[in-house]
Design a protein that fits this description.
Layout lengths: L3 E2 L18 E5 L6 E7 L13 H9 L3 E6 L9 H15 L1 H4 L1 E11 L1 H11 L21 E5 L12 H8 L5 H6 L13 E6 L8 H13 L3 E6 L18 H11 L5
Helix pairs in contact: 2-4
């Protein structure tokens, strides 16, 4: 799959010139025109990106008539705001090139797993409306997603429920209380946060289920519609969960929710 580089003119704050220094999206286009699009953010604790949370998810979205774009966002040693800048840029590019990709610029979602779920949640809470004064027309577009899908997401950076590895990789071991609170997504929800689908398992030993519960509670207080699915059993990092007859139902539930929001066929 051919990569679409997010910055043709040079990556801001790049530390090198390898693939890991070069954020990109990999397109999986559905047949037809004016399709919804979803950017897929694999997890990996902001230290790597898990393959099983990338292409298999894109191919599943294609079965729903949704075009998918798996993002290669920057991870450690990069810290905040590099990964957020990458996903924001990806959203702007999809809006700018919507006709080329045969997608609907008003139906762009972000789906993330684990730390990728944190990245998706920050995209949905720390967006901007674009910069009409920028000489680059890509930057004129809003970076707000139209929907969020958060799969066993890291949400809070605060103890006792954060995933310590993600927090350190994103903010450093010496992060200030101010920075930790600023990147705790449950604190940034408001009435304009996109509708959200969440799923988690109650016995997740790596990223406690409280992360999804905190975000769902914040959405509820803000009056934002959401679907929340908590499965009794199952570990962390399950991806499509095809080997679990109960948890694998999350894809059916998510497909139903996507249809409800007029994203899927």
């Amino acid at each position: 799959m051919e990569a679409i580089l997010l910055w043709q003119e040079g990556v801001p704050d790049a530390l090198g010139t390898t693939d890991e220094d070069t954020p990109a999206i990999f397109p999986y286009l559905a047949k037809g025109d004016h399709r919804a699009a979803v950017i897929v953010c694999p997890g990996g604790g902001y230290q790597f990106r898990a393959d099983h949370e990338g292409e298999p998810i894109a191919l599943w979205l294609n079965t729903l008539g949704i075009s998918a774009f798996v993002i290669r966002y920057r991870v450690a040693p990069y810290r905040y705001p590099s990964a957020l800048s990458d996903v924001q840029r990806a959203i702007r590019i999809l809006r700018h090139r919507a006709e080329e990709f045969r997608i609907d610029s008003k139906k762009i979602g972000v789906l993330g797993f684990s730390a990728g779920g944190h990245l998706a949640s920050t995209a949905g809470t720390l967006y901007d409306e674009g910069n009409p004064q920028s000489p680059n027309p890509i930057e004129h577009h809003s970076s707000r997603p139209d929907l969020l899908m958060l799969c066993y997401p890291v949400i809070t950076m605060e103890q006792p429920h954060t995933h310590q590895g993600s927090q350190i990789a994103l903010l450093g071991a010496d992060a200030s209380t101010q920075d930790i609170e600023a990147l705790s997504s449950e604190r940034n929800v408001n009435a304009n946060t996109p509708p959200t689908f969440l799923w988690h398992t109650s016995e997740d030993g790596a990223v406690p289920v409280e992360n999804s519960l905190l975000f769902a509670s914040a959405l509820g207080r803000a009056g934002v519609l959401f679907d929340l699915h908590v499965y009794a059993q199952g570990g962390h990092g399950m991806g499509m969960a095809t080997d679990d007859p109960h948890v694998r139902r999350w894809t059916d539930e998510c497909a139903s929710w996507l249809k409800l929001n007029r994203f899927a066929d």
